[in-house]
Amino acid sequence: MFYVGIVKVFIRRWRNYSARMALSITVRNVMIEVSNLTKRYAGRTAVDDISFTVARGEIVGLLGPNGAGKSTTMRVLSGFMPATSGTVRVGGFDIFHDSDETRRRIGYMPENNPLHPEMRVREYLKFRARLKGFGWKKSRERVTTVIEQCGLAEVDRRIIGQLSKGYKQRVGLADALVHEPELIILDEPTIGLDPQQIRSVRSLIKNLAGNHTVLISTHILPEVEMMCGRVLIMLGGRVLASDTPENLQRRMAGGSQVIAEIAASPSALRTACENLSQVACIEMAVVEGEFSRCVLTPRDGQDLRPLIFKLAQVNGWTLRELTRSRHSLEDIYMQVTRPRTEDVE
Amino acid sequence: MKIFWTLLRRELGTFFLSLTGYVIIAAVTLIVGSTFVMLIHNMGTKPFAMPVTQLFFNSFMFWLLVILVAPAITMRLFALEKASGTFETLMTTSVGDLQVVAAKFTAAVFFYMVTWLPTLVGLAIIQCFTNQPKLDPGVVGGMYLGIFLSGCLFLAIGCLASALTKSQMVAAMLSLAVGVILFILAYMAQVLPDAAESATGALYYFNLFKHMEDFTRGVVDTRTVIFYATAAFLFLFLTLRVVESRRWK
After folding, report:
1. Do residues A118 and A243 both lie within one domain?
2. Which residues of chain A does B90 touch, with a Cβ-Cβ cutoff of 8 Å?
3. What's the pLDDT tens digit per position in B129-150?
4. Reduced to 3 states, what is the DSSP secondary structure of residue A105?
5. Which of A234, A327, B131, B184 falls 20 to 30 Å from A285 in CA-CA distance?
6. Residues A288 and A206 grouped into a single domain
7. How far is A133 from chain B (nearest CA, A)?
8. Residue B43 pLDDT greater than 70, yes or no
9. Are both A115 and A222 inside the same structural domain?
10. A141: domain range?
11. Candidate from B10, B18, B248 with C-beta closest to A127
12. Chain A neighbors of B8, CB-CB under 8 A
């Protein structure tokens, strides 16, 4: 029995090792590798069998309504809680079995950015650097660096509890950065900030690209469009879509509508448009004077703009606006998340 | 070890930089001080047959203090961090579960011993201004060893209670309840003649009053020491398991 146990342990170690070697050789560029991750709380599945990978240096946005499983995913990724099933690898190390190795590589800022309110900024960051395994000298150096990086120099001796929310958020970010992690996980980093603060936190995060891999969760769409190279849309514990914001928009562009404002008699305009075989649907309204505004939906994803221009030219109508409405990420988000939300209701 | 010292420093920092710490010290000093005053008042000028330390620590006042102070010190340890979310940031750094539990417990014990420091003044007063016989260093040492050991047990209970919940109130109530149960057991051991007489009775080991009486006479019974040490270890071990349990699947 004893020998069998030893052999089993040996085999498991070897598998682990060989898998890690194979992984490091084949996909050195993969930072996060989540496969079939499921997290169940008592009687409730928060994350349901999701898989995705994040390459080194990417900024990925995790998008979804409240309760979609974003925070749970991040908590598992940070190593705070184990997954019910499935594996997560960060930098080639298993998050559960090589917990120490992965924790050293991850800078994690949880939801609501918990800090010790009674400590001073520099003191707190130094304390955190020490906890992350740095010596006195090294932690002092690093703290000075991140304080400058995050624009905390003028408040570094203030008590955290007395700082504004924007500064607190930066302290949280500085904490996530202090041990030079390869991967930074930020759970709703801009929640509750005013627009000015949001902008500064965003630019901070944007500056991290390249040196760090960043995973951000949010339910603010423009944020994702602005910062992230890729979006994962989550709902009900599943990943529904994963692509760049542009690709998602392009995918949706097939049905994009054309808006035209033309000076013509409404009835003539309507008949002219209806005679176009490419137009599936038309909505019209008189805007001002003789101008009418038409919203045209194409039948097969064709771009209607040249046709409309020609139509106006042929009839001698004045054309003052011609635009194609691009689907915003919001539309995509709504479209992706709508059917299931209604199911739930 | 490096991380343990960092954690310990921070834990002690919160005790000594917060108002609650000083409120606890003040309360203990007030109660201990007034007890001493009463003692001195009743003593008059006649020497007593037993050491003064014994007089004080056999009163219920001492146990009342222990039972109340231990939850007040420990309720914050884990519960507050869990409630504020800093527990999550703490556990995702390179710290080990054991380091966290050890640092928090050590800080609590250290602070607890500091709250008892003012008793030294009381002893000094009795020594210098009354006609009581000179205090034996063994008696004083035994007294502080007794405070330390009983404190360890009650603080370990408090740690467990705090690790079990997010609410400081619940943690305090839990450790208070366990403390009261221990106190009742001790009381039973004291009043039931059977348990007191037969050293083999299980209840005998719970006779906290008897333990303290021995300590304050300068008698260190290994059975007692082992009882407190193992009981404290048991509760700390359970605390560690609770902290680890977040990693159970």
Report:
1. yes
2. 131
3. 776 677 778 888 888 898 999 9
4. helix
5. A327
6. no
7. 6
8. no
9. yes
10. 27-251
11. B10
12. none
**Chain B contact present for A293, CB below 8 A:** no
In tens, the pLDDT along B199-233 reads: 556 777 777 888 888 888 888 888 889 999 999 99
Which tens digits make up the pLDDT trace of A132-160? 988 889 999 999 999 988 888 999 899 99
Closest CB to B92 among A82, A103, A135: A103
With beta carbons less than 8 A apart as the criterion, state whether A253 and A266 touch.
Answer: no
Q: What is the DSSP letter of A212?
A: B
Q: What is the mean pLDDT of chain A?
A: 82
Number of domains into which chain A is organized: 2
How high is the pLDDT of residue A286?
Answer: 80
User: Is B89–A114 a contact, with Cβ atoms under 8 angstroms apart?
Assistant: yes
- For residues B101 and A313, which has the higher predicted lDDT (pLDDT)? B101
Q: Which of B15, B82, B89, B246 to mutate to test the interface with A (most CBs of A within 10 A)?
A: B89
More confident residue, A335 or B175: B175
B92 to A78: CB separation less than 8 angstroms, yes or no: yes
Of B222, B220, B230, B224, the C-alpha closest to B204 is B224
Chain centroid to Cα B64, Å, comes to: 11
**Is A14 inside any structural domain?**
no
> A82 vs B94: CB contact, 8 Å cut-off?
no
Alpha-carbon distance A191 to A185, whole Å? 15
A83 CA: distance to closest CA in chain B (Å): 7
For residues A101 and A105, give the distance between their C-alpha atoms in angstroms, rounded to a whole number: 7
Contact B86 A108 (CB under 8 A): no
The shortest C-alpha distance from A255 to chain B (Å) reads: 45
The two structure tokens encoding residue B243 = 């902290």
Residues A47 and A186 in one domain: yes
User: Tokens 């906290």 sit at which residue?
Assistant: B208
Host domain of residue B85: 2-247
For the purposes of burial, counting CB atoms within 10 Å of the CB of A310, is it exposed (0-12), middle (13-18) or buried (19 or more)?
exposed
Q: Is A195's pLDDT higher than 70?
A: yes
